């Protein structure tokens, strides 16, 4: 076939660009933002105005040098020069490192301090979360798909269990309301009002779902990526793949992790261990967090965030019956993968093996991309050569088949195939066609057909991903916007 080119020869080395921690411009005590202060003023203002953050979650310090966080407590930031781990001081004067994604600057806190506020959670995910809770009056407030607006999602059993979604509107005075008769100065006031008065809602507002999932930290402690295997308790087997067995584990008896035990001889270990330092720093809600590696013994272990529902492919197949009629939820899954991929693209990081089997599903229907960049360290020629039997031919664009040319644009092609997998609830692309036949079709410009029931607008997006010319494919950033606007158009928010 003339396709026996090695992946390893044509590596486009990913460049990891670290984004510095978000810096906010200082706000003066009167609430004004200063002009360009002289250096003396600057010094003075930094003394007076140190950054204060509030903990969004509890965090238990484990390593010496780390500091525990208590939800809702305030901390003074001493050093935020590292992106993921900041040095802070608590009210008692204790100093230590904390995960920066567990806190929010006090002045920017807004609704985040409330348990009922769930940020960007989609309509579909809020519905499954509330249905799972199954309590009358259970509610969340989330960002509406129309930017700047908020939606209240409320569960009621009357006359039958369902979720109602209400836009929170604003009148000309800027007051918030759900029913025009009851306006309040702020959203928290409005929520409090409707805790006592249903005021036209299907039910009074009662509890919000408890047990909101806590995000993963970038590594298990600051600057930690080498994990002591003695601190890992290995539990049941979760599955096995290309590299060996994956087991659930507990780190230091409390943190859930997944442990991938790398079959010896399957990967170039030293290169991977080097890369793992960079990979632990990649952090996004839609990427499976790499916590670190146990590299001192053999086999080496890769320790990642644990995802309770396993691979997206199996999840789609297992839940086909309920998912097939819920195109909104399927689209939401695609949007989540797209968000994770847009983050990788922004950091010039190429996945190389994006497919439903390499995404994982967690609680609240969260979907995350796993195994990014790992393909570069595989030693098996059957996997790394485009002519090999394990090469993901069905996810590969023409330029990969012909020249093994990987880029974010080849990830886009694979993403289109992943969308197709999602909307067919886990069918095998190109059915039983042999790899050689698939290659022939792709070279001729033939593409996968529209999945049954799939909206035309969604299929149009898949087709954009399968443009034969890489430059004509959209970026993940653009794709994300397009998918969100399709979701807005198709569904009533
Ligand atoms: P490989 O990449 O070696 O082929 P996978 O990463 O696909 O192996 O893992 C094999 C299986 O193990 C997956 O299909 C999934 O069911 C399970 N698994 C892998 N990683 C996790 C994780 N982080 N959380 C939960 N289950 C996982």
TrEMBL record:
Keyword set, alphabetical order: ATP-binding, Kinase, Nucleotide-binding, Phosphoprotein, SH2 domain, SH3 domain, Transferase, Tyrosine-protein kinase
Broad class of enzyme this protein falls into: transferase
Molecular-function GO term, any one: non-membrane spanning protein tyrosine kinase activity
Coiled-coil features, chain-numbered ranges: none
Domain of life: Eukaryota
Transmembrane parts of this sequence: none
InterPro entries hit by this protein: Kinase-like_dom_sf, Non-receptor_tyrosine_kinases, Prot_kinase_dom, Protein_kinase_ATP_BS, Ser-Thr/Tyr_kinase_cat_dom, SH2, SH2_dom_sf, SH3-like_dom_sf
PANTHER family reported for this sequence: TYROSINE-PROTEIN KINASE
UniProt record similarity statement: Belongs to the protein kinase superfamily. Tyr protein kinase family.
Full protein name: Tyrosine-protein kinase
Species: Agrilus planipennis (Emerald ash borer)
Taxonomic placement: Eukaryota, Metazoa, Ecdysozoa, Arthropoda, Hexapoda
Gene: LOC108741331
